[in-house]
Batch of 2 targets.
Target 1
Amino acid sequence: MPKVALKACVLAGLAASCVLAANGVPDAGTLTTCDAVRHLTAALSKRKPRVHLRAVVTFFDPNALNMFIQDATGGVYVRWQSTGPHPNVGQLIELDGVAALEDFAPQINQPQWKFISNSTLPAPKLASYQDMASTALDSTWVEIQGVVRQTARLRRSALENMFWMKLAMPGGEVEVNMPWQDGIREDLVDAVVRVRGVCGAAFNAKNQLVGVQLYTPDSKQIEVVKPSAPFAPVPAPIAQLQRFGSGYSMGHRVKVAGTVTAAMLGRGFYLRDASASLYVLTRQDIDLHPGDRVETYGFVDLFESHVRLADASVRILGSGPAPQPISISLDKALTGEYDSELVSLDGRVVQSSVWRDRPTVTVQQNKDIFSVSPIPGSTLGKLPPDNSVLRVTGILTDEIDSMDRVVALNLLSRTAGDIVILRPAPWWTLRKALTLVGILVAVGALISIWVAVLRRRVNQQTEVIRQKLAQEESLKEAAQAANHAKGEFLANMSHEIRTPMNGILGFTDLLAETRLNDEQRDYIATLKSSSESLMLLLNDILDFSKVESGQLLLEETPFSVRDCVKEAVHLILPAAQRKHLQTQVDVGADVCESVIGDPHRLKQILLNLLNNSVKFTEHGSVSLSVKSLERGDKGTLLQFTVSDTGIGIPVESQKHIFEAFQQADNSTTRKYGGTGLGLAICTRLVSLLGGRIWMESKPQAGSQFHFTARFKIMSKLTAKTDGSEAAA
Ligand SMILES: Nc1ncnc2c1ncn2[C@@H]1O[C@H](COP(=O)(O)OP(=O)(O)OP(=O)(O)O)[C@@H](O)[C@H]1O
Ligand SMILES: [Mg+2]
């Protein structure tokens, strides 16, 4: 104790001299003690306050360039820069720099230093684990005591080269870091030691202290208080660890031997002996494989209700075949007896997922599930598809709740080969079914939309058609009205013109009977024939327009068909004789003698057809025949046929000649005369008589015009006839 007190006095003196020796009076904002740096606030750190102080170097790592210094007020961390000579631990230096607050605690950056004198290290503060974890002793030179759990050489980066030691203290574990000097010092394991060094912190992303470190400058700071106990020669059976009365209990180092079932480089491995399996944690950089026979020395440790071996050192005794898994059911696995054991389990894949490159497969056996994930440093390979049936081999790890019940099971598979597909996933899955249903619903929706659109269009089109039809109907009515008006006008006009024409004709006849010279007589003859032609034309127009305007009403008179036919033929006889044409009439024996109808219109039709035949025939004959087609309650239907041996009608003209003002060609108009109204009038009259009209013709061979007409029957007596009459 006097020695410690003396060192404290020396340091206090150093601190005082530090302030005085700083080139006269330091700036008001300059920090001149370690304690002033340690009290740096966030607000002050923004002004980057200068540091000028004298302190003793308590730790310096020439590889990682970490440095701690301490004066009478406390210790502080210095971020060393590689410029300049390295200080030695125990030197008193004068240091300039900038105070900064970067992570866990304030520190000094951009250090410049000069050697003042060789000094001694400060008197250490005796510290418990709780003292160190309180953060109050951070960067302070302390002395601690504990049991060495593990020693190793740390080379985790190119700059790192440390002797590392884990010290178990009441309350927690402290990691001791010392710049690498000599050997690994395995002899320290299990020994009780006293160690001096600078108290440091391991902190998390939130700058909270989560572990305690001790930075020891050299091996002189390590004193063995009680050497390690010798090993028992016989390994402990794994199943006996932490068993009542076995002697293999927590806090003591034991030797265990067995076969490696799975290994994780730099972390640990799973070990099986004849009694049970166990997880062994070691930092030893040793490449182990399933099947290796090893012996290991470690401390019995508890972790979440599991017994394991921590801080172990390992020695390979030999290698053998890969250990076989124990095939168990999930029910057995749930008992908790197989934790850390190499087992194989069967089940169906429920789901596969990957989180941050770490895949997990959820597998179901009966109603329970377990998860499969790769052991750290390994991979699962291609994830098995959902619903496939697997056999998975791996290390079983239990998750246990506060009531010591197994609440989750995970299988750590070691290689992709640990997962074997026993039965591939069925092609038809719920997902596919849902996809199909989705597609069907979508298609159905599309069809419905399409049908709706179509229906709308049809409705629109129907409305358009309806409007068009209505429009056409009104146009048709207007056209009919116009046609009717035209016909009425024509009928009236032709009728009106006929009255003066009759006067012209009458007075022409009277004039012809007066005394005239030859020339006058000739003029009168021409005048008469022209007037008669005009009269004929007027009659035609009158008839046609009457029919068109609906003014033509048929008579209902009893008459003899035979007489009517004779009269018609008789009228064309003079013209036929002038052209030396033979005429023939043939009235069938079954034709009724007396019928009721309009004989004038029938004669008009016959005359039109007979006149045409005479007009268009130069040689041969013109004939008319009548036959009965039908006879009954509705009356009799007669067919009339007018035939000639004339010029015939070209095929292309045949379909038009029944239309008004249509003639076979223009030249015929000039040669044969006429206006093209005759057949049009016939067509309409035939229609009024309840029949139809048609024709057959061969150019240069002759024509046949047929029409039918229906008449009421006057009496039941059938006209008796001799059948034919001929006239030359
Ligand atoms: N028997 C026939 N032989 C040859 N051509 C005919 C015959 N009957 C009618 N045609 C043709 O049909 C056309 C129309 O006949 P339609 O009786 O209607 O008129 P048109 O005789 O020329 O004049 P309209 O009879 O008014 O005096 C004729 O111009 C003629 O070309
Ligand atoms: Mg004619």
Target 2
Amino acid sequence: MRKMSIIPALALALALASAPAARAHTLWVNAHDSFNHPPGHVMVSLGFGHRLPLDDLLTGDFGVIRLATYELVEPSGKKVPLPMPDYARNPRPPVDGLVVERGDVGVTKVQFTPESPVGAYVLNVEALSSYLNQYVNDKGKTVFSQKPLDQVKDARDVIFAWKYYAYAKAVFSYKEPGVPKPLGHDLEINPLVDVSTLKAGDLLPLEVTFLGKPLTIEGTDVHYLYATSNTFGGPDKFMLASWVIGGRAQFRLPSAGQWVFSIYLQRDVDKHPALADLKGKARQVYYVASLTVDVKP
Ligand SMILES: [Cu+2]
């Protein structure tokens, strides 16, 4: 019962994607290339919600997300900051029962020029990490707070105390194939082959690292990488899954289209020495990571 009360509240408060089964929003980044007018450009946008490529605004009734980093990483590793989205809500009064709202999903055009570096590019999105806890206060009332636990002074009984991290990447190539280097996220999905020539039916091997090490089975704790597309799974509200063993996962991609790979990890702070600096501030850490690639027909 406890879990049922937590998840909808969390979805409203912070939109943490705790598990695909939960209805909390997921964060991903879209890279839509256009080469009709050479040398071409890429349209970048932020996906938030469930349905690819765009589902919701970054501030909505079912989720809110704020970014710490929004940038393009060149083939050399050089970083180009992208303009941060405007999170403001702009709802208009309903007309004919319709609420019209202008929003910002970070739409940004990256125009190539004859001087543009060639090779594999990465779009890097890091959400602002945040504390979230729920507790019963000294008056017996259940409350939510976004303060670290050691700054909560009126807690009689802590229901949960989380810190969450969300990362989203997209990978694309300009003129030449390439395999980009990992960016060093706490939880990260890396393609192990050039993705620019991927076609339906190809096998895509991926690496998943957690705190810089290959993620693998720990005791009975088995990790899964999920895959969904605008052409497969997504429209029917299901995902494909691959075990992550020794840092490796792979998918044979059944269709062309946009594919988003995602993974969700939860860790107890007091059981993991690497999380020692969060002791007293949070009891658990949630990590969410996604990777977007386009698969050619
Ligand atoms: Cu949602």
